[in-house]
Amino acid sequence: MTNSRRSFDVLVVGAGPAGIAAACCAAQEGARVGIVDNNARPGGQIWRGETQDSDVVDAASWLRKLVGSRVEILAPMEVFAQPEAGRLVATSPDGACELSYKKLILCTGARERFLPFPGWTLPNVMGAGGLQALVKSGMGIAGKKVVVAGSGPLLLAVAAHLRAHGADVRTIAEQAPWSRLVRFGMALASRGQKISQAFQLKKQLSRIAYRAGCWVVAAEGNGKVESVTLRTERKTWKEPCDYLACGFHLVPNTELASLLGCELRAEFVRTDDFQESSVSGTYCAGEPTGIGGLELSIAEGQIAGFAAAGQRERAQAYFGERKSQRRFSTALERTFMLRDELRHLPGAETIVCRCEDVKFGRLREQPSWRAAKLQTRCGMGPCQGRICGPAVEFLFGWKAESARPPIFPVAVESLAATACAE
Amino acid sequence: MRARSYDVVIIGAGIVGAACAWACASEGLRVAVIEADIIGGGATGAGMGHLVVMDDSEAQFALTRYSRSLWQLLAPELPDDVEYESCGTIWVAADEEEMQAVRQKREFYEARGVPAEVLDAKALRLAEPNLREGLVGGLRVPGDAVIYAPCAARFFIERAQSRGAELYLPRVVTEISAEGVRLNDGSVIAAHRVVNAAGTWSPMLTPGIEVKKRKGHLVITERYAGFVKHQLVELGYLKSAHSMTTESVAFNVQPRRTGQMLIGSSRQFDVESKEVDANILTRMLERAAEFLPGVNRLFAIRGWTGFRAATPDKLPLIGPWVGRENLFLATGHEGLGITTSLGTAKLLVDQLLRRTSEIPIGPYLPSRVPESVHA
Amino acid sequence: MPKAFSVTVNGAHVGVTEDMTALAAILLSGTTTLRRSVSGEPRGALCGMGGCFECRVTINGERHCRSCQIRCAQAMDIRTDD
After folding, report:
1. Interface membership of A405 toward B (CB under 8 Å)
2. What is the CATH number of domain B87-142+212-310?
3. Between chain C's N and C termini, which has fewer beta carbons within 10 Å?
4. Contact B206/B329 with Cβ under 8 angstroms?
5. Which of A84, A98, A374, A384 to mutate to test binding with chain B, by most B CBs within 10 Å of its CB?
6. pLDDT surpasses 80 at B18
7. Residue A368 contacts B where some CB pair is shorter than 8 Å
8. Are A204 and A164 contacting, i.e. CB atoms less than 8 angstroms apart?
9. Residues ≥6 apart with Cβ < 8 Å to C59
10. Chain C: touching chains (3 or more CB pairs < 8 Å)
11. Closest to B302 (Cβ–Cβ): which among A1, A404, A412?
12. Do domains A4-110+251-332 and A114-248 have the same CATH topology?
């Protein structure tokens, strides 16, 4: 096992749009920059699989900038602990790696929120983003029947992508009611780029039923999903399918920020105007500061990159864009709020914690999250509560606790390497 | 409607307090248990859950042996989530000097009626193929076991409740008085006797108790069923547990029914912070890899710390607190709280009922501490 | 052009390219169950981004590998935990 060391002026964790923007801007100012990501190629989720020659204009342009810069790309590599301020340890196929930095920019993105319902653990029931990621990683979907469900604008992007790869997308079930979606649409109407995005999507989604106020109540099948039961206020019906792509909007990946001692406000990392967190020299940009979509992530990344490189005036040039995009973020939150019916989907036998197979019936007897963890081991498996945590927060109001190392499971020898220094 | 006055109020629903509650309630005493946080939320939930006979002293041996036999009797009644596994312990000898200690240990155990088997190098490899080459042998203690302690504590509380005990949770005790205990909301719970089973918090409620926090680290792995079959401990563990030096690590690995492995152990005095110490963690994991080289490639899911309640003479405090007629202690169990919870409960209830115990109680009485401390 | 080669999934050869993940190779082979949960349920991938740990399989003898995060490599041996 090799133990390697890298030292940077600015270290960026996460190579999605925010991280790429931050790294490029910091490098532009002459800083020695490194960027870490647990995927083999930069792009994060939304730009997964994109390259410099992609049709997706902003992805191609930013990736070109990144590759053309002097940013050192460390991928795949996964940060798991901080032995002391100024030093992170990460793991890669070649072993543990120590990353020293003067300034740190956390761009760890977001993940989908999963809510349990009967049958959700069947193979081929996946997240919406999850199925899209899978298709981008080489899985074929042509001719397969897919139901896309849950909540959030991601559902549309996913449906369009799957359709473009030959899937037979049967329906899109959005739990938010029409009234809220219409208001959201009006809000979108005021933003130029988003209009064109919306029109593109409309073309790609023609003839796919988009149902608002509609949600999955169960998935059925033998050994894998074969149909889903959908419900609106007026009716309930079964829809046969090969895949269910179901996710309920996004939750921020704040485990690393929390481990480093960054203050959270609600579930997001609190940052100042220059994207600096409560920990001096540690910045945060993109979804962990608030779920706000692509343009906001890029704006925040640019601000953080310049600020971390000591160029506050350059950072300020993007304050306007950030302010404008943050309105979208607020509209998102309001529009896609989760309806109460979703709390009543799981039955006593429905598994909530997939790592430890802890059922809803056992959990609802517990007085608190801490008691639940200790008595049932819910949240104590390898995913470290990433999947069940947002679910139990929605179902019971239980809040996640602060993170402890390692924030991802790592080989014992890598964990032992955390103190290796001097 | 809650009872107005109890025979016994027990402070702390860790495994010791919970076992005491059950023992008292089973004798028909009216019992209240007061817990500030959650059942098993202190050392009970942080530790290794081993049931082990230890020979650091005659008194420790007597109490652990007595307790372990109570666990063995109870085992068939334990619910599934307590995960009682009689996997046994192997004390591992790395050299001839330790092998000598192994033989002496065996004589000591056998003379006191606890079966123990000496394993030579070959037998050790057969018993545990993942141990490194070159270890000289070990002592196998087949009656030792492993449980999941937080669920055991809950089970004891439920048993106590089925005999009429009442649980006050969450409630914080601010003061132990002659009448009983006062809670932080100002109310008083009246009781004839009070038992301080608050582990590392016990000195806060009863100033003068010589219980110090002794920090430990643990790591749990992914599921690798069969990687080790017994609980494995290096002989140096005893030195580590016994010493009063500020910090030490000792190899101690435990298989769980889930197929996960718990890797320990570490001991530190005078550290208040709950943070995982990267240096200690490294030393502990490297020590484990010295005995189990294959452990390096296993995935570690979580690391955490906990505090043991340690006394100067390594024995728990079980019995009346000197100078206070109504106050009893059941605390200071260091790394043996899980094992000795049942024995402690028996010794305590014997004293409450003025009965002779099955083992001599002298070594555990709080009054064993020199007079000057109680001044 | 991404490089093309084969890997084995539960002993059977599957033709892949270097930008495909081990998970994609498994699904290409027609296998839908990646592993059994602790109570024996069949499980497949959920999140697709390395966070849920449902896609764990044994790769080149190493257990508990997240197949959605690992790119195919020449002669990679992939075994599901069914």
Report:
1. yes
2. 3.30.9.10
3. N
4. yes
5. A374
6. yes
7. yes
8. yes
9. C22, C65, C67, C70, C76, C77, C78, C79
10. A, B
11. A404
12. yes
Alpha helices in C1-82 (DSSP H): 22-28
Tell me the nearest-neighbour CA distance from C66 into chain B, angstroms.
12
Q: Is the per-residue pLDDT at B375 higher than 60?
A: no
C8-49 tens-digit pLDDT: 999 999 999 999 999 999 999 999 999 999 999 999 999 999
Q: Is the pLDDT of residue B374 over 90?
A: no
Nearest Cα neighbor of B180 from B2, B361, B364 is: B2
Q: Are strands B166-168 and B117-120 parallel, antiparallel or unpaired?
A: unpaired
Reported as a single tens digit per residue, the pLDDT across B241-277 is 777 767 899 999 999 999 999 999 999 998 999 999 9
- Matching residue, tokens 């530190």: B268
Can you tell me the distance from the alpha carbon of B66 to that of A369, in angstroms, rounded to the nearest whole number? 36
Task: Determine the 3-state secondary structure of B265 from DSSP.
Answer: strand
On the 0-12 / 13-18 / 19+ scale of CB atoms within 10 A, C15 is: exposed
Architecture of the CATH domain A114-248: 3-Layer(bba) Sandwich (3.50)
Q: What is the DSSP letter of A249?
A: S
Query: C57 to chain A, minimum CA–CA distance in Å?
Result: 14
Q: Across-strand partners of B267?
A: B248
Q: Helices B149-162 and B337-352 sit at what angle, rounded to 10 degrees?
A: 20
Residues found in chain B: 375
Tokens of A223: 């050994």
Maximum separation of any 2 CA atoms in chain A, in Å: 67
Looking at A152-281, which runs of residues are DSSP E strands? Answer: 168-174, 209-212, 215-220, 227-231, 236-240, 243-248, 250-252, 264-265, 268-269
User: What pLDDT does residue A199 have?
Assistant: 64
The C-alpha angle with vertex B332 and arms to B331 and B336, in degrees rounded to 5, equals: 105
* E strand residue ranges, B106-183: 117-120, 137-141, 145-146, 166-168, 173-176, 180-183
Query: Could you read off the pLDDT of C49-59 as tens digits, one per residue?
Result: 999 999 999 99
Give the confidence band of A195 by pLDDT, cuts at 50, 70, 90.
low
Q: Who contacts A14 (Cβ-Cβ below 8 Å, separation ≥6)?
A: A35, A36, A37, A44, A106, A107, A108, A109, A286
pLDDT tens per residue across span A227-242: 999 999 999 999 999 9
For the domain made up of A4-110+251-332, the CATH class stated in words is alpha beta
Question: CB–CB of B90/B232 below 8 Å?
Answer: yes
What was the pLDDT predicted at B372?
Answer: 46
Which of C24, C41, C69 comes nearest A121 by C-beta? C41
CATH superfamily to which B5-47+149-210+314-374 belongs = FAD/NAD(P)-binding domain (3.50.50.60)
Enumerate the β-bridge partners of residue A340.
Answer: none
CB contact under 8 A, C53 and A137: no
As a whole number of angstroms, the distance between CA B317 and CA A206 comes to 76
pLDDT at A246: 98
Comma-separated ranges of CATH 3.50.50.60 domains in chain B: 5-47+149-210+314-374
Helix (H) / strand (E) containing B303: strand B299-310
CA angle (A262 as vertex; A258, A265 as ends), nearest 5: 90
Distance from CA of C75 to the nearest CA of A (A): 17
The whole-number pLDDT of residue A422 equals: 41
Classified by CATH at the fold level, domain C4-79 comes out as Ubiquitin-like (UB roll) (3.10.20)
Q: How far does B118 lie from chain A, in Å, by closest CA?
A: 30
Q: Two tokens at A371?
A: 């008691």
List of chain A residues whose C-beta atoms are within 8 Å of the C-beta of residue C61: none
ipTM of predicted complex: 0.97
Q: Which residues of B touch A412 (CB under 8 A)?
A: 219, 221, 263, 285, 288-289, 295-300
Size of interface B-C (CB pairs under 8 A): 8
CA distance A211 to B9: 59
